Model the fold of this input.
Amino acid sequence: MLKNAGYQSKALPASIHGTEDSGSAGAPQALAVGADLSGEWWKALGAPQLDALVTRALLNNPSLKSAQASLKAAYEQTKVAGAPLLPSISASFNPTRNKTSKALSPVPANNSYLYNLHTLQLNISYQPDLWGGLRRQVENQAAQAEMQRFQLVATTNTLINTLVVTLITQSSVNAQIAATQDIIATQQKLLDVMQKQYRLGDLAEAQVLAQKAALSQAQATLPPLHLQAEQAHDQIAALVGTTPDENLPEIPLDSYRLPATLPVSLPSALLAQRPDIRAAESQMHSTSAQVGVAIANRLPNVQLSATPGQAINAMSQFFTPGYGNWSIGAMVAQPIFQGFELLHLERQARDNLLAATEQYKNTVLTSMQNVADTLHALQDDSDALSISATNEDAAVRSLRISQKQMSYGDISPILLQAAVQIELEARLNLIQAKATRFTDSVALFQALGGGWWHRNDTAMKIPSTDWHAGF
Done:
């Protein structure tokens, strides 16, 4: 049922319409249903500095490198779990110098009560996996390693997405700072004119004070914007694995380009592309294997052992006839009563499997909701950009007219102050709308899996997850 589900009730549009006179953020975008994602999708944003920073983050981010090392350890643990499938062999060599009592016991080695004894022995043990419990344990460990692998992929996708979004946010905030500074300069010029008019007796003091308040209000918006820009810089530095004191490149907002074509994976392909879905699938696989382990623990267990060896007095006697010894044994163990512990462990494993299955379904549904929300945002935010562009154009025209009227004395300074404030808000809204269009495209790439199958985020050759691999 889940594989045939769609992202949304209505059909997807063939493209996202553009907005004229909005720069690169207003470009139209085509939706290619079923197209593959690039592993380096961020290059589609057209900013070489962005590409360099992402590459640096993938190489130097400490959290990512830690996760990669942990993943290697998890795969090694899979090999450890498979060791009991093969015989266990150990050797021991025990040379001793001995003295025995002549009166109380026979004396070996030609009646010499001082003698040497060299004992060489092999210890061989093997547990036949009659009920598949060992194999299911290896299967469980392999599934756990696979789950950790896809968690690493998800971490990498999140790292890339966070870095790109933070860079776009930084660019947006810098653009808002520049716009605010322009408005402050305009407000200051207006204040200078009004102060001259006040000294000439053409304006009341209340109007001058109102303009000073408007200027102070605009100036008060700068410190929070500077704080956002500084925090964005610090976050970018941490993501690329460096300290905040390094001077990192800052990308102008207009340097970004919207991807001309956006891939939209089919829902059935999403099951293989989303790392969170793959991790949930591995978790379900792991809990399934634990059920097999719990069942096998309730059945008889067979242990085979052999201990061939030699005990000699002189090193020259090694591997000569007459000094050999050995023992061969087998043990069968059957759990009889442990206070119903094994029964409840099996029931627990089955309940865990049911919980993991439902969690997998929930992850799939949440992932499809994520993609649907992102597709909606692409169109809706494009409409919002169009409205913001129209509003900003009207606000700029209104301000120009008001400035001319003010120079002729046709309007009051209060009306000009209002026009200045409206133009500032319109310009800031337009900048934010442009940034949102870029982040919407980033969010779609993230929602569709980030193209990890074209990269090697693990920094290692992924081994086979079959239980017998490497044995």
About this structure: DSSP finds ten helices and nine strands in the chain.
